[in-house]
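Cont'd.
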Amino acid sequence: MAARITMDKIRVITVKQSVFANNNARASELRASLKKQGVFLINLMSSPGAGKTTLLVSLINRLKDQLAIGVMEADIDATVDAETIEAKTGVKTIQLHTAGECHLDAKMTQEGCEGIGTQGLDLLILENVGNLVCPAEFDTGAALNMAILSIPEGDDKPLKYPLMFKVCQAIVFSKIDTIQVFDFEIKKAEARILKLNPKAVFFPLSAKTGEGVEALAAYLVKQIKAYQSTK
Amino acid sequence: MAARITMDKIRVITVKQSVFANNNARASELRASLKKQGVFLINLMSSPGAGKTTLLVSLINRLKDQLAIGVMEADIDATVDAETIEAKTGVKTIQLHTAGECHLDAKMTQEGCEGIGTQGLDLLILENVGNLVCPAEFDTGAALNMAILSIPEGDDKPLKYPLMFKVCQAIVFSKIDTIQVFDFEIKKAEARILKLNPKAVFFPLSAKTGEGVEALAAYLVKQIKAYQSTK
């Protein structure tokens, strides 16, 4: 476990990648341990600025009365996202600093889990580093991989960053309140993702207006209940 | 040099990272060689979907009558960007595939330079992989590092991805035609970047409306003339 520092209210842990670890084996171990505890881990990934934190605030405020939720905010630097989540939702939040790394691996996620304390949680959300490339290559031990593609980024992104859209079961199209301003065809994006990943499910939404967030919340509650019923 | 494949009109080269190379030494060599030829290499970086390709089309069409321009489009997959550049500007364009790598290093850039053929060029633009993290760590040998931060991404990105804004001399704020729709304060973004990089210069613009593109074009012409006058 790396050093811990307390910065104002937000606890920060620096997590370091293990070069020699077998990431897949560690991810499987972490997944099995969380399953035993009934803790559903979501690995949330996207480009920088696609709206991960804004979506989490909106989603958590819809779910926190029925689920015990924790959030691990991973960043190279700063604590702005963890502060936002804690201030706007009140749920247990920790900041993970990656010491320059562009993604989280299973060992780093495990350190985060130890840092936040998973006991009693139903839902633990890892907000990965904003990056559409590298995080997709590392299994973190999550029960669900979820990606956000924002409308301003364009509907061609699945062509250029295919792995991300292959490894995620749930895909959010965010900022749909701006769809009039940008050239983004949801049907085109869906077709491109389904070619890579025929079982992908889609959630077009706007965390700003609230449109579509309820459907994602309902989907997650259903997933978590099914997961916990077989632990 | 890796294998070359011809796909329709766009030539594709797969460039592979050299694990053992001393990247800084290779970058210096490439920079010296390009300087001797008077070829000004720009390394253009941003998140996915910030508008690198759209800006290049607008910029190149303003510059191609006074400068001989080449473009190297780096992507993990697809050739959509190279096709767009070639179709909309007519300048010499090559697609570099990174074999999964999330960034270009100096060796990969050198392979790209050999692939496209730098002779007679005034300006060579490398459109790096869309990623605000990893490309910032690798000197490609460019004369100028340029980053784009798009308005929809938010003005907090320099806090979270500081290295990118440290290593770039020129920073473009793109999609400013959408500034009414998003919470982005240009003054705030500039102040955050200047803290990391006191000499940064800023170009707020919209490639869609054309606003601000002329100022960037004029800046680049000035840089290139100064560079070529001392070769």
